[in-house]
UniProtKB/TrEMBL annotation:
This is TLDc domain-containing protein. InterPro entries: TLDc_dom. Pfam families: TLD. It comes from Adineta steineri. Residues 65-234 form the TLDc domain.
């Protein structure tokens, strides 16, 4: 454990090439923890903090942040963080609106959405291979979409929840943020940082492998977001 912690240490005032190398190194550690299924809450929080610090330093060089990942070897080999146009960590209200989500994330192809809840700071989200749109309706995804938990109040290790009804994989509506499943399994409302309207009706279209139902991700059915990041898949 101490060895891993030492490996995560880095200098904040270094050149962009070194910052990028640190991003890759940290992401490999996240991928390994997820693959092994033994990531603790503290480990994930420490890694997330380290990512944020490195990304902040790297951003000073005027280039987009990006992370290479083996989170899903067949589908997510390379993930680009769209932090510059859809994330809540800058504290701006616009970053949490459904309008901002669709303005920046529609028609982008495969994406992974990572959400941090305001209460508890739990990390969870979903992956889809199809593009988000503003037009209303369900969209089928036959390329293994899934929901996932990274940290949660139950001590469940990082876990993926595969789709069981592909025709309801995601739901599009201009008034909604990223929404997965019929019901919905995971729904992010407009102004999700200040509204308590986001909810989890799970399982519905996705399989509950850990038998915690709607309390799986945050411990409650309704939640507010503290942070949202949407990552776009880049094909090699």
């Amino acid at each position: 454990m101490m060895k891993k912690k030492r490996q995560l240490q880095f200098e904040v005032d270094i050149k962009k090439e070194m910052q990028l190398n640190k991003l890759l190194e940290l992401n490999q550690k996240v991928s390994k923890l997820i693959s092994d299924g033994n990531a603790s809450f503290k480990q994930i929080e420490n890694l997330k903090r380290d990512f944020q610090e490195v990304q902040k330093q790297y951003k000073k060089f005027g280039k987009a942040n990006f992370i290479r990942s083996n989170f899903e070897p067949n589908q997510l080999k390379t993930i680009v963080s769209n932090k510059e146009y859809f994330t809540g960590d800058d504290g701006t209200r616009d970053s949490f609106t459904s309008g901002a989500f669709h303005r920046h994330c529609d028609h982008r192809g495969p994406t992974m959405t990572i959400i941090q809840s305001k209460s508890g700071g739990y990390l969870f989200g979903g992956y889809t291979s199809v593009s988000w749109r503003s037009s209303q309706g369900y969209v089928e995804d036959s390329y293994e979409p899934f929901l996932f938990t990274l940290t949660n109040p139950h001590g469940i290790p990082p876990t993926k929840y595969p789709v069981i009804e592909e025709r309801y994989a995601i739901f599009n509506k201009k008034e909604c943020g990223p929404t997965f499943g019929c019901g919905h399994d995971l729904y992010v409302c407009d102004d999700s940082k200040i509204s308590t309207g986001s909810y989890i009706y799970f399982p519905w279209s996705y399989s509950d492998r850990t038998n915690r139902g709607s309390e799986t991700f945050t411990g409650t059915k309704y939640f507010q977001t503290n942070d949202i990041e949407v990552y776009r898949l880049i094909e090699n």
